[in-house]
């Protein structure tokens, strides 16, 4: 066994940082100088190192390419006005990655590679964490199967990696979402609760159809009847009806978002009533008609909170209350950002300081 506390580091000879325009960062296309790479084979982790960011060389028979044994995570590091760097809830992402791994028959990633790996990688590429307001260093850990083999079976070898990408403010334009009643993101017993690569591939086509109608994204509904709300694009979904914050309860078809969990906790701390339960499309539309539907929004790492201002359901277009009137998401969204930036106490110990 290798000593997991010792991540070998090979430094870049020349940083690419001076060439980066931090005022114009396209999302997810600029990568910092270093990456972490760990290899698993024959039942154990064989190596882990931090190296210059660069291409991989893989066999065309690499099983991940053919059968999609591939999972990922996404989290962010923020730099605040005191030049501290804070990573939000890395332990939660580590735990979730290992749940995804179990569902996809993949090995668990050691905490030392995931959490300590992020710490060392971000420390090393500290200068890549933007200091602009609402900018951050997006951290992408991922795990994929590397057996050179065309048989359909769990791979015996894997690569775990972490790459990081400086990203600008996420201009959360208010969203127009279509309540999807034909296509399905996840079915009971499937892999919807795992951050599995294939989930995103299968969502592209229905999303494209909606975008051709000028709609931003989809609200996914249950696979069987398309009656209950599940997720909003690649975010968890929340609504406020008559002052109560309601979100679909977790199940095999819902990704357990770290933002979802954080928003629920902060809302409860504010004395807001929260409910995790089924929400039917009918309930949503009824609440809209009788004037009790106050807020609809998506929650996820990318946007934190993305307001929904318009819904399309079959041929009906529904205008939702103006954003300025949205008390719950504004209050809790601000609380969450203040904690992430280290500008407010962190009662749950969510931040990892670097
Ligand atoms: C990642 C993701 C979310 C949000 O999870 P966070 O941990 O809050 O970023 C929600 N739904 C889907 C489908 C996702 O992939």
What does this 3D model show about the protein?
By secondary structure, this protein is an alpha+beta fold. The protein has 2 domains: 4-169, 2-Layer Sandwich (D-amino Acid Aminotransferase, Chain A, domain 1), CATH 3.30.470; 175-340, D-amino Acid Aminotransferase, Chain A, domain 2. The chain is 24% helix and 29% strand. Strands 1, 2, 3, 4, 5, 6, 7, 8 and 18 form a 9-stranded mixed beta sheet that branches. The two termini are 28 Å apart. The mean pLDDT is 96. Bound molecules: pyridoxal-5'-phosphate (PLP). Residues 74, 195, 231, 234-236, 255, 257-260, 300-301 line the site of pyridoxal-5'-phosphate (PLP).
Class derived from helix and strand content: alpha+beta
CATH topology of the largest domain: D-amino Acid Aminotransferase, Chain A, domain 1
Q: Count up the domains.
A: 2
Main CATH class of the largest domain: Alpha Beta
For the record, the CATH architecture of the largest domain stands as 2-Layer Sandwich
Rg (C-alpha, Å):
21 Å
Bound molecules: pyridoxal-5'-phosphate
């Amino acid at each position: 066994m290798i000593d997991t506390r010792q991540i070998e580091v090979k430094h870049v000879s020349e940083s690419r940082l001076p060439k980066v325009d931090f005022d114009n960062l396209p999302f997810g296309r600029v990568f910092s100088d270093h990456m972490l790479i760990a290899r698993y084979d024959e039942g154990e982790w064989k190596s882990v190192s931090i190296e210059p960011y660069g291409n991989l060389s893989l066999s065309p028979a690499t099983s991940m390419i053919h059968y999609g044994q591939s999972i990922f995570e996404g989290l962010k590091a923020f730099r605040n006005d005191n030049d501290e760097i804070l990573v939000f809830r890395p332990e939660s992402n580590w735990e979730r990655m290992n749940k995804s791994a179990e569902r996809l028959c993949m090995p668990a990633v050691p905490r030392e590679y995931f959490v300590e790996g992020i710490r060392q990688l971000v420390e090393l590429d500290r200068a890549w964490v933007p200091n602009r307001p609402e900018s951050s260093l997006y951290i992408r850990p991922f795990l994929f199967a590397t057996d050179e083999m065309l048989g359909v079976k769990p791979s015996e070898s894997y690569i775990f990696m972490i790459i990081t990408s400086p990203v600008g403010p996420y201009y959360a334009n208010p969203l127009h979402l279509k309540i999807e009643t034909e296509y399905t993101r996840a079915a009971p017993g499937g892999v919807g609760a795992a951050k599995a690569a294939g989930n995103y591939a299968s969502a592209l086509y229905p999303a494209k159809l909606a975008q051709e109608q000028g709609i931003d994204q989809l609200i996914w509904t249950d696979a069987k009847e398309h009656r209950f709300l599940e997720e909003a694009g690649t975010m968890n979904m929340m609504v406020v009806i008559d002052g109560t914050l309601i979100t679909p309860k977790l199940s095999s078809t819902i990704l357990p978002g770290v933002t979802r969990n954080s928003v629920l906790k902060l809302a409860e701390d504010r004395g807001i009533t929260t409910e995790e339960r089924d929400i039917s499309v009918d309930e949503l539309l009824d609440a809209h008609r009788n004037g009790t539907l106050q807020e609809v929004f998506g929650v996820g790492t990318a946007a934190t909170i993305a307001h929904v201002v318009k819904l399309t359901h079959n041929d009906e277009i529904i205008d939702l209350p103006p954003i300025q009137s949205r008390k719950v998401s504004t209050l809790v969204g601000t609380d969450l950002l203040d904690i992430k930036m280290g500008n407010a106490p962190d009662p749950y110990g969510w931040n990892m300081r670097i």
